[in-house]
Design a protein that fits this description.
Helix content is 19%, strand content 43%. By secondary structure, it is α+β, with helices and mostly antiparallel strands. It folds into two domains: 1-30; 33-185, Porin. The protein starts with a helix and ends in a 6-residue tail after the last strand.
Length: 191
């Protein structure tokens, strides 16, 4: 009788221990990732017109991005390296050349404040922007960039949008630029 009671007690402790370990593993998986990366892949709106004319856009905007959350301070560091060029349909068929596309690059960095939003989080802060490896025009420096990372029921963090405000909106447009989250993880976590 005592052996049976001891066996049941040890069995219950083992089952409870396994359940607790499973619960902790589940909680660890529910923690928000701290490192995100992906691609921006979008077109800007046509600048100031309802019809497309050469030189007004839309511009193709493409490139990789990274974002690191700092949980303790409620801030995040964001960086992107994008190329911009006029889309084919913004050019006439006689001038689809590299120079007509006005190709250029931008490196964009932000140290911003993190705010929870429905389906994800938002990072807002002043952007440092380069153009072709040098300083971007002063009119777009220090402009605010709003970064939203959201997702859905199947992929918690799947989408990113970049919305430029202030002077940078005249270059990148008022509409959000869209992209994809390719990776969201907590560096150092073993899975």
């Amino acid at each position: 009788m005592k052996r049976r009671m001891l066996f049941r007690t040890v069995s219950m402790i083992a089952v409870l221990g396994l359940a607790a370990a499973a619960a902790l593993a589940t909680l660890a998986d529910l923690r928000t990732p701290t490192h995100f990366s992906g691609l921006i892949n979008d077109y800007t709106a046509v600048a100031g017109a309802t019809s497309v004319s050469p030189g007004t856009g839309p511009w193709e905007v493409r490139g990789p991005w990274n974002l690191t959350l700092h949980e303790e301070s409620g801030t995040a560091d964001f960086s992107a390296a994008v190329t911009m060029e006029l889309a084919d349909f913004s050019l006439s068929s006689s001038n689809i050349t590299a120079s007509a596309r006005m190709q250029h690059t931008h490196h964009i960095t932000v140290e911003g404040k993190v705010t929870p939003i429905t389906g994800g989080f938002e990072v807002t802060g002043p952007a440092t922007i380069t153009k072709d490896g040098g300083p971007a025009p002063a009119t777009i420096q220090g402009s605010t960039l709003v970064i939203d990372i959201t997702g859905g029921a199947l992929v918690t963090f799947s989408n990113i949008t970049l919305t430029f405000e202030d002077g940078a909106a005249s270059h990148f447009g008022l509409a959000p630029l869209h992209g994809v989250v390719r990776k969201a993880d907590r560096p150092g976590d073993e899975r």
